[in-house]
Fold each of these.
Amino acid sequence: MAKPYSASYYFRPHTWPFWALHVACVGAFFVEFSWWYVALAFVGYAARMFGVTGGYHRYFSHRTYSTSRVFQFLIAFLAMCSAQKGVIWWASHHRHHHAHSDQEGDVHSPQDGFWWSHVGWILSNDHEQTEERYVRDLMRFPELVWMDKYFLVPPTIWGIGMFLIAGLPGLIWGLCISTVLLWHGTFTINSLSHVWGKVRYATTDTSRNNFWLAIITLGEGWHNNHHRFQSSARNGFFWWELDITYYTLKFFSFFGLVWDLRPVPAHLLDSHNDSWVKNQQDYTMFSRKNGEATTATQTEKFAEEMM
Ligand SMILES: [Zn+2]
Ligand SMILES: [Zn+2]
């Protein structure tokens, strides 16, 4: 059911910095243009997206590989430059999402409206608190707790860096445009990845696999795979499923920066596995008939029917 908030609810004073960054992107028309600035925005996007996917998501939320305390701190810092609040806040909400995906209590399900799942849940202040019971493992590290508390420090340092590199155009391209694109790129995982794409596994949620979303999110678009098995360091389960985050982690592992990358269990790669959706068309018809409200019981029933 859509959240019963009016449009003005999403423009209350605490949301103004979020909207201001969007408006500031228009500044690109008022400063000199250079492809170097575009490259700056692109590199800023890709590096911080890796921080979000390889750090916030695959390491802090799911612990899909191991690393040192120093690298853990560095990747948390890089991820936090994305201005998506603190590392502990992010992981606690993401673990909550997996515990309640598309069911009652999911913080960002498209079942509550597409807009809500994309950005509404962040602009509301319903979810500002961190549920500590989900993240006790991360709260053992004082440096992470400190950075999580002062979550504006990393993005501020990022902004200063951009200004030092290229002055005002650096701020517009490297901070404003890059960050706004990064936000919406990340948010597609909560919104579009639960709506648009194919379903390989009959999971108890509406997650999908989508090549285009995997490109803009460096591999997170294989979201149906991920909901089927969260503990793997790779979300593209097959070689043809592009997963730049995984390739980067693998590259880092050659230098000993990360290790113990957890693999995909072999039985999930076997198309005769019980949890594979055998007939995509039937599944689509099934989900349409049920208004995409694939509750646990419906999905289980469907999986049985398809066996
Ligand atoms: Zn999801
Ligand atoms: Zn996840």
Note: The chain has a mean pLDDT of 89.
Amino acid sequence: MSAHPITILGTGIAGLTLSQCLLKRGIPFHLYDRSPTPARNNYAITLYASTYRALCKELGISERVFLERPSKPTTNSPTSPSPHPPPRNPLRNTSTSQTPPEIHTPGLVIAADGVHSAARAALLPAIAPQILPYVAFNGRRELSNEVFEELYAAAFASSPIPLAIAHKIGDALLSIALVAQTANTTTLSWTYSRPAPPADPCFNPTRPVSSATQIPEASYAELAQLQALPQPFRDVFDGEKVRGERVLHWLMRALLVPSEELTKLAGKGVVLVGDAGHAEAILGGEGANGAVGDAVGLAGWIEENGVEGVERWCGERYGAWEEGVGRSRDRITAMHGEAEGKAVL
Ligand SMILES: Cc1cc2nc3c(=O)[nH]c(=O)nc-3n(C[C@H](O)[C@H](O)[C@H](O)COP(=O)(O)OP(=O)(O)OC[C@H]3O[C@@H](n4cnc5c(N)ncnc54)[C@H](O)[C@@H]3O)c2cc1C
């Protein structure tokens, strides 16, 4: 194995998984993040069994420990999603508990700095995520467990989707996910989404990243007009309750950096992984699964081959990126119907 040192930018799921895999193999690296603390807006992610099994192996922990969430069943199917969004903590704790590597001059830079990657923007300024034409608003609701039992529990119990329920009105999708439950309270995440026709007043694809909490008035008006919803959707999408909450205007970002650009960059010693290289829309996407796959695969490749010629890894992995991005676009269309509007850069 080559002794070239490695620099990883970003401690998201890709960067942390990669760092753990390299530590396990005794390969030195530096790990940087722009933020000194974990992300403030933590959210649950669904990892497929094939992904979390690979992760557990790298972390050296059992599936039971990884999936451990209060009083819920687990799945053993190799392809079905984990019914419990695994927390990031096992990964973060395991990674940060290791001895930091020695200082080296960077040889290979691995940009795992997310969909807004500064490394990608600096080196490939013409390439940016597309915004798919979908309106999507997301909020959180905390309820007492009594209210949950009274209004929600039966719908969740009979839902075919693990820990989530959904209701369609035309091409609009109303979904509710169970995020957490304590002895007294239940936290839900709700999302209202639909295709955005051209000039839709509820869709602002050019909003700055920092303006996700600015909700167009037209969106509140649209939610208030939802008529005769069945419970528990009536309770969650109640216009007055929604106005009192922190609501996020989600944008559906999709990205696939062209293969030839990746290869050129890798030839210069910079590899993009995770959302920095290929991003899938929040709704219908499986970006975290792809990010873990990149990290585990790249670490194994480096162990076998060193860092020279890493562009070959990019070429080998690219098919999975294309498939993932294509699949996620098909899924968001199937969830809502075809969008009339166009993707925006
Ligand atoms: C609400 C929501 C729900 C999702 N649900 C799912 C799901 O259920 N299943 C799924 O598979 N995927 C899901 N995803 C997508 C998934 O979260 C991403 O695909 C995944 O987090 C990408 O991991 P990453 O490590 O590439 O990037 P990120 O997780 O974005 O991490 C990037 C890291 O880089 C750091 N960084 C940024 N800029 C710099 C810089 N200049 N220098 C150094 N560090 C920097 C950031 O601080 C961050 O720590 C969801 C996404 C969202 C937003």
Note: The longest helix spans residues 311-336.
Amino acid sequence: MTTKTPIARHVGLPETDPAAKAAMGWMHTARFLTTAAQLHQLPQLDLPEIAFVGRSNAGKSTCINTLAQQKQLAYASKKPGRTQHINLFSLGRQGGTDAVLADLPGYGYAAVPMQDKIRWQRVMGQYLVARENLVGVVLLCDPRLGLTELDELLLELIRPRVADEGLKFLILLTKSDKLTRLEATKALQIAKLNAGGGDAQLFSALKRKGVDEAALKLRTWVDEVSPAFAEKAAARQAEQGESEDGLSSAGEAA
Ligand SMILES: Nc1nc2c(ncn2[C@@H]2O[C@H](COP(=O)(O)OP(=O)(O)OP(=O)(O)O)[C@@H](O)[C@H]2O)c(=O)[nH]1
Ligand SMILES: [Mg+2]
């Protein structure tokens, strides 16, 4: 869905909301940052991070590519289970980075050996509970399947952070091009009921439905938390400066 300005809506012009346009421009700056198979391999970042989670084949990687307006930023495939690492992408203009997107491996793919499933569920659980700079979670859900048991488990896992830290949460109903209008309306109603503390919207990479809306939402999340992150980074820098001063004055005294 295109987010129109009130005037455009009034006269029926397909004009895009300037804020949504800016959000899409920002999304287009996405570039690969790093990949990690294990949590401890992820860099500690002083930047707001937004994770894309959901069952295998739900369309997480395609969603990131669609938001970024890039064909092959994240690896998408017909074959489920293609994303097997946590892949991070930086966002920000002029080479600066003001946020990070995380593409997570999907869960629930039957052909994955049980041991790998368990290992992965543990890694993802730890990521969602302990990743300090995580500010938002986008749960991708194929509305033809609805929320699965593992989706519900994930919701349980993040609920305390949603309640205590204001972790943002959005359910994206992917592949909505496969639904009739009535099915889409019903699926959205159900998802909104299940999104306790968060939001839900329809999305289609194929038909470019809900893309502006999702980009704008993520931009809003980042705008909301950026001052707190800037403050933290400044405090850390000051701390470092003080300890360096301490070192140099110790050096001078010697
Ligand atoms: N019709 C339709 N197909 C889509 C849409 N989004 C993704 N797909 C297809 O769904 C399949 C899986 O997409 P991916 O983006 O690789 O899914 P994923 O969630 O990243 O999968 P894993 O990495 O295995 O967890 C691909 O064949 C995509 O082309 C959509 O909006 N509409
Ligand atoms: Mg993927």
Note: Residues 6-240 form a domain with the Rossmann fold fold (CATH 3.40.50.300).
Amino acid sequence: MLPDIRKDVFRGLSSPVYRSYHDEYDDKDSSLKRSSSPLSNFLGILRLPRRHTAVAALNTLLLILFFYNLPSIPTFLRSGPSAMAKSNALFSSNPAELTMLPSERQARLIEKARNVSASSPFPKKIWQTWKTIALPDDDNYKFTSSWQKKNPTHEYELLTDATAERYVIDNFNETDPYIVELYRTFPKRILAADLLRYLVVYRSGGLYTDLDTECKMPIDRWMDESLTHLPGVEASDINVVIGMELDVLNRTRWSDDWVRNCGFSQRIQFIQWTIWARPGHEILRRMITSVQETVRADIALTSTKTISALRYTPNDILDRTGPWRWTRVIQRYVDEIEGRTVSIEEFGDIRGARRFGDVLFLSGGRWSPGLAHSGSDQTDSFLAHHFRGSWKGDK
Ligand SMILES: *[C@@H]1O[C@H](CO)[C@@H](O)[C@H](O)[C@H]1NC(C)=O
Ligand SMILES: *[C@@H]1O[C@H](CO)[C@@H](O)[C@H](O)[C@H]1NC(C)=O
Ligand SMILES: *[C@@H]1O[C@H](CO)[C@@H](O)[C@H](O)[C@H]1NC(C)=O
């Protein structure tokens, strides 16, 4: 029980943003499954197991299709699968990358990072999401106005259910209609809320931050404050800023059971309740691609091959769209842009900030102050996250 509460609190699951207010999605197709089709009635009369009949019919069909297409199969093989893939999709893996040498991959990421850096500064824009414009009547949201108050020169946008869907359609339907479909039909809205932040930061850049966060220091000071710890690093070297959510590398102090019971998959974890980046960053593109591919694979394994048939446990959610996958994607990116394997120990005990490639990692205290376990104190915090109470005093 307790670990569940911690996990939920930690993840902001108790935030109404994440509450499944579209629970009806869960059972959307159950009526379909119950209704029996004329075909199944017919098969029932014949007393043939439906599955066997279907397999036999499918095989026959495939055989007919095979012979029918025989003359054109060699051409199909020559043109290859890439000719069939949609070439303009933003969120797809590049098969060529699989065969690249690490040094080639590194060179490519460095070039991409340079392009991102040259094409835009960090946009002065703050993004938050909520289902309607009327904010929830809850003490935890009284902090929202701090973002506008402390950052008067930054544009502020609250995406509601309606405007968020419009945003996703306008920005991605042309290139990646499947992303739009996922966003609209995810059976749990937490999945959509996760996906939305990656889409917004990828396309528009700026600061995404959950509704229950409070600005403690004007955003315009964040970069300089952080770079005082890194002599020689310039703001122009940095394209994305990532906060530490967890840093419990000491196995004596934190057992494997502790880590698992608290809902973590590794001894370090990166924050995804706040993300700050220039637009077009490869980490966001990879994250969205990875979410899309894994959900597609999950759907293919369901009985009805439909998104509404997905049944994700809380850990599945952490893994599919949440911080587990986010952390892995970032680690992989850092390995590639550094051209070596960066061990998780290198993310431990960050004081102020640390840089890998074009990614700036902030100490826990900056974006996640007051976590006793990760040793993050509250001095010099950039922001506070307010679903934190039950973590306090938690050793
Ligand atoms: C970087 O930008 C240039 C100019 O737009 C482009 O030709 C090149 O393909 C980009 N590099 C990468 C790795 O995306
Ligand atoms: C997305 O694009 C497709 C094809 O271009 C179009 O048929 C569809 O209506 C669009 N969807 C939305 C929600 O605009
Ligand atoms: C790990 O934790 C133990 C127990 O709290 C402590 O005695 C030890 O010094 C710690 N090790 C390091 C490297 O901090």
Note: The chain has a mean pLDDT of 81.
